[in-house]
Amino acid sequence: MLKGELELVNSIRNLIQQHPSKNMSHLDTRDNCSFDAVDKLMSTLQLAVHIPTFLLGLVLNLLAIRGFSTFLKKRQPEYIATSIYMINLAVFDLLLVLSLPFKMALPQVESPSPAFCTLVECLYFISMYGSVFTICFISLDRFLAMQYPLLVSQLRSPRKTFGICCILWILVWTGSIPIYTFHREVEKYKCFHNMSDGTWSAKVFFPLEIFGFLLPMGIMGFCSYRSIHILLGRQDYTQDPSWVRQRACIWTIATNLVIFVVSFLPVHLGFFLQYLVRNGFIWECRVKQSISLFLQLSLCFSNINCCLDVFCYYFVIKEFRMGIKGHRPSTAQLVHQDTTSTRG
């Protein structure tokens, strides 16, 4: 009997060594895989990227809010809707800018105040997805204004536009609820690191990917394509002198789409790869380190988007002023939802 029991134990041991369980393999790989070199590199890189981003973003977004507030005071109906949307986008970008100093400092402190850490993480991700939804809605509203001017003109009063922006804020705040569980059941953690296993569960991850990025990117891509198509089909641009302005509008739409994709696609690809890591689909240490580096790099450079949006603000304000000086509808009406020029 003793010999038979020893043979049975040895057989089980060999089976475990050949086919390690998912949980045991995950623990061994995680314990033996260090991310200190990645975190050290990113700490240095964040200082080089986030400090100028913070300074430029703070100044430029405050100027954008002030500039569009000036147009709101003029009470010109053709500019009000666009101004409200642009102020809303600038506020989201400003929140992201204000969260950057804390994003650089808090990861250097182990187990900071849970409430304060959660607050900073909320501000950061709310500002990111608030910008995503606002840019998406601007593209949708612009396309509808070109395609269905009479219908949209009835829905673009200042009160309704402000109400839409309030709905966007409610959506992103509601979507931030999972952030409160980021560090649940984690004894030692750092802000923006060491997320709990529940954070990377399918019920949290896939709604974030689909509704937070894939759906807005699809809507923006379709609306941008249709808006450019409408502008190209308006007139014979080889003979129309206004084609120069329309071509600028087309380039602005295309540039906004490219900036959106470049800013947010790598981040959500990094989220997907990290989801595979945390759910046991990827085990090799070097691959995990590369994914961690890629995700942190993507988040770092996506923050520059809060400064890139300023180019959009600049062109809109420039078009507004040209329209006011010339006492004619501005070509910003073609690019940023103003409906009057779509009837001509």
TrEMBL record:
Gene3D superfamilies given in the database record: Rhodopsin 7-helix transmembrane proteins
Pfam families: 7tm_1
Residue span, G-protein coupled receptors family 1 profile domain: 60-313
Ranges that cross the membrane: 47-68, 80-102, 122-140, 161-180, 204-228, 249-273, 293-316
GO BP field: phospholipase C-activating G protein-coupled receptor signaling pathway; positive regulation of Rho protein signal transduction
InterPro entries the UniProt entry points to: GPCR_Rhodpsn (IPR000276), GPCR_Rhodpsn_7TM (IPR017452)
GO molecular function: cannabinoid receptor activity
Signal peptide: none
Main localization of the protein described in the UniProt heading: membrane
Annotated localization: Cell membrane
Membrane topology (UniProt): Multi-pass membrane protein
Key word Cell inner membrane present: no
Alphabetic keyword roster: Cell membrane, G-protein coupled receptor, Glycoprotein, Membrane, Receptor, Transducer, Transmembrane, Transmembrane helix
Gene Ontology CC annotations of this record: plasma membrane
Family: Belongs to the G-protein coupled receptor 1 family.
Name of the protein described by the UniProt record: G-protein coupled receptors family 1 profile domain-containing protein
